[in-house]
């Protein structure tokens, strides 16, 4: 700054003010700066400042996520088994079920660990021996063990099935392997699917039904926990888990406690220890530095230590047993390129790291949770920037200029504060469009027969942007831009992001006012 005296005056005032509060501890001297002061938070267990700082870290992550058009659904932070802060984006909450994608792999792995503890299998069993009907198989598949599959060191370079094709289970044994098992790390969702199939074959029941009395009920996991199924009606153990964020926190606490809950061992100790220790070298991963430190059994081992469950769209469960720290995040980042990895980096660097540093320094505790309370943070849905100056009424029908992509007609009824956008006709995407718009707040509605949240705004003199979060079994984000040309014609750019999203929602089209 140009005015150094003004800066010194501000710093002097800040030092005097913080000193006068009488709640901060004097920090260390700063070498080379005689007048500089360092203040540390209080250590009083009843003081909620640390919880406030924890909430501030959550707020920082939320702001960065919003700037990337990432919808942050929920955040939970616990220390020592007690929640320090949490955040929700209404209408979603900590007890709202949603798909957790690859977090499913960890739950499937726990089922395998339980079966091993019960003597129903050995981790060194060849997987092909449990599916004799698949014989003959390639020698590298004959040599593939359950342990290889848990550690993602199987013989396939990637997932063997195609989502829209039949025979996911059979594909694992029929697709030609690329290398001997146990040699390199290759992330393979089909391996987790086969492990779920193995669980159901050995137990004669579904994956969640097997886990219910052994794990889920003792942890008070929601009765709504379920798995989507593959084409053979097998639980999708690689990506189909649907549960609540609170369920994930309870599972994390169990792993943090070495598989013991309320003094009762629920998971075999040897499995938990092996699952949370390096079993595979992931240094060649291209998904970012956070995932290059190693892999256990259906768990990532990030660079700061601890373990990590990580699912498509930004489903994150991080546990640090050494510090008693758990962070659970649910989100939909699919509208941002590499959004889940960017969100993970932000969570690890902007939330986990400062909390871990404070715990290591002995200046953070589970303040605010000792009396049964925690600090709540309100999250906001990503929304187009709205400039009320540009908002204008529009009413009428617009006809698709060509017999091509997009709805055959658009019906608009817009005011200065919102309105409705409807797509009709033979060329309409599945379910059509019929969305209520408000420029000042999100709208809870249904789109394509799914619960949805819609935000909208006039971002320019002739441009209206619409964003829609579809909250069905497969999280999806739809964005549309309506831009009027000087001649009154209307250009529409539509984008959709989701694993099973209908590609008919991806298009550019032009419309003219109906006669």
TrEMBL record:
Pfam families: Beta-lactamase (PF00144). Residues 75-334 form the Beta-lactamase-related domain. This is Beta-lactamase family protein. It comes from Streptomyces himalayensis subsp. aureolus. The lineage of its organism: Bacteria, Bacillati, Actinomycetota, Actinomycetes, Kitasatosporales.
């Amino acid at each position: 700054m140009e005015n150094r005296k003004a800066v010194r005056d501000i710093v002097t005032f800040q030092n005097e003010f913080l000193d006068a509060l009488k709640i901060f501890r004097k920090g260390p001297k700063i070498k080379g700066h005689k007048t500089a002061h360092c203040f540390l938070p209080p250590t009083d267990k009843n003081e909620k400042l640390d919880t406030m700082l924890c909430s501030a870290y959550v707020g920082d992550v939320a702001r960065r996520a919003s700037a990337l058009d990432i919808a942050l659904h929920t955040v939970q932070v616990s220390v020592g088994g007690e929640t320090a802060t949490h955040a929700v984006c209404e209408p979603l909450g900590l007890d709202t079920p949603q798909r957790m994608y690859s977090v499913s792999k960890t739950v499937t792995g726990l089922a395998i660990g339980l079966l091993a503890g019960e003597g129903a299998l050995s981790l060194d069993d060849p997987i092909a021996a449990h599916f004799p009907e698949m014989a003959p198989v390639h020698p590298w598949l004959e040599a593939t063990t359950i342990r290889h599959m848990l550690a993602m060191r199987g013989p396939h370079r990637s997932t063997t099935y195609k989502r829209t094709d039949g025979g996911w289970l059979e594909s694992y044994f029929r697709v030609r392997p690329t290398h001997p098992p146990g040699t390199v790390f290759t992330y393979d969702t089909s391996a987790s699917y086969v492990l779920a199939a193995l669980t159901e074959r050995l137990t004669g029941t579904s994956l969640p039904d097997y886990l219910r009395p052994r794990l889920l009920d003792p942890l008070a996991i929601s009765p709504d926990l379920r798995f989507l199924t593959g084409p053979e009606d097998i639980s999708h153990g690689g990506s189909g888990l649907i549960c609540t964020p609170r369920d994930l926190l309870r599972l994390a606490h169990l792993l943090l406690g070495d598989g013991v809950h309320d003094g009762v061992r629920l998971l075999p100790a040897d499995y938990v220890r092996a699952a949370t220790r390096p079993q595979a070298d992931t240094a060649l991963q291209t998904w970012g530095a956070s995932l290059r430190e190693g892999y256990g059994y259906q768990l990532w081992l990030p660079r700061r230590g601890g373990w990590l469950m990580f699912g498509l769209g930004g489903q994150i469960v991080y546990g640090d047993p050494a510090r008693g720290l758990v962070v659970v995040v649910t989100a939909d980042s699919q509208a941002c390129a590499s959004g889940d990895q960017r969100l993970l980096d932000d969570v690890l660097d902007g939330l986990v790291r400062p909390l871990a540093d404070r715990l290591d320094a002995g200046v953070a505790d589970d303040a605010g949770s000792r009396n049964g309370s925690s600090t709540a943070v309100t999250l906001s849905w990503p929304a187009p920037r709205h400039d009320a100056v540009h908002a204008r009424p529009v009413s009428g029908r617009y006809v698709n200029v060509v017999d091509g992509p997009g709805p055959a007609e658009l019906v608009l009824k817009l005011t200065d504060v919102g309105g409705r956008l409807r797509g009709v006709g033979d060329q309409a995407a599945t379910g059509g469009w019929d969305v209520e718009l408000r420029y000042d707040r999100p709208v809870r509605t249904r789109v394509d027969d799914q619960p949805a949240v819609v935000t909208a705004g006039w971002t320019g003199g002739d441009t209206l942007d619409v964003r829609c979060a579809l909250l069905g079994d497969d999280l999806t984000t739809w964005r549309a831009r309506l831009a009027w040309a000087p001649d009154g014609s209307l250009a529409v750019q539509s984008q959709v992001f989701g694993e099973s999203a209908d590609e008919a929602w991806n298009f550019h089209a032009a419309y003219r006012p109906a006669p």
